[in-house]
Amino acid sequence: MKILIICRSFNNMAGGIERMAAALMNEMCARGHEVSLLTWDLAGAKAFYEFDDRISWYNLDLGSHVNKAGFILRIKRMLKMRRLLKEIDPNIILAFQHGTFISSRIYSLGQGYPIISAERESPSRFEHLKAGKWQWFIYQSFRLARNITIQCESYRKEYPGYLHNKIVTISNPVFPAKCFAKPIGEENGRNKLLSVGRLSYQKNHMALIKGFSKICYDFPNWDLVIAGEGEERKILEKEIKDLGLENRISLLGAVKDTEELYCNSHLLCLASRWEGFPNVIAESLAHGLPVVGFSECGGMKDLIEDGVNGILAKGNNNPESLAQALSKLMAEDSYRGKMSKSAVKSMELYQPNKIFDRWESFLTEASN
Fold first, then answer.
1. Residues in CB range of 315: below 8 A, 6 or more apart
2. Predicted confidence band at 184 (pLDDT cuts at 50, 70, 90)?
3. What's the gap between Cα 189 and its chain centre?
4. pLDDT in tens, 267-293
5. 2-173+351-367: which CATH number, 3.40.50.300, 3.40.50.2000, 3.40.50.10610, 3.40.50.720?
6. Residue whose C-alpha is closest to residue 120's, from 273, 274, 250, 268
7. Is the pLDDT of residue 75 over 70?
8. Which candidate, 321, 322, 284, 331, places its Cα nearest to that of 304?
9. What is the DSSP secondary structure assignment for residue 171, as one 8-state letter?
10. CATH number of 191-349
11. Whole-prediction pTM value?
């Protein structure tokens, strides 16, 4: 097949969308397919994640993807995309996220290319975003998609019935761990509570910092380490300073290889308001690291079996319930140790070969 992946931006982007897109492109390329990437990036863009040299990367190179485009710029983008699509001539197009899908579908009208909308977040995101007012329009636009991919089967019921026959569930692959966490703390040592994710409204590190502050003095040998970068850094730094916890909470910035972090931590918490397929949770579990997340955060219940491989804190965006859940696991080494074995086993369902076989089969069928 000639597969075209379309993403809004890849330039130094360290998010889950870019990571999954890179992994999928690399695998499809390794399986003998011709793979191209099209983004809104400017010329000279550099990818955070590595991908195969055989993958052709096309940039629209017309204005920043961050700023809202005016009418003239949109016309220029449309004309250039149509030229590029004619040059690439893909059998199938996979557009990551609804905004990219809508633009791609409009820009390519009349050219006849089948486009799949790869949704990477739970429909519950509309409850937290201003974009929620456009939810009806977004769902209507999906009528023009060849298919819609979702990451968790539980999301299907949240979409309107007229879209159900277009929806295909394909979870993210979870790669085997090269090392395993030691959730049982060392005597007289420091224990690490880890969180990995962009410093953003969605990932909601503020709730984690506040939750940790409520119990940190009960657990003086525990530190909170947050890996990620983003627009909320200054806000989080101020909160940490105001709480007087500069010596207990660290913001590491973006980390490309998180393997060492997982293997040298004792517990992980992801306080997100919503997720798609929470890769950080899945990767932590694969490394034998017990996890904590909010029960009402999209995607958490699909991976966390409460009391078996982690704990679900009640509600969403609730520092108090998060503190209670964390306390249960921070207090008992043996509890975390027991969960570690269950954590690894629970991720066997997401072996990469199985997931990529599913993608290849689905893309082949959709291209026909």
1. 294, 295, 296, 321
2. confident
3. 32
4. 999 999 999 999 999 999 999 999 999
5. 3.40.50.2000
6. 274
7. yes
8. 284
9. P
10. 3.40.50.2000
11. 0.86
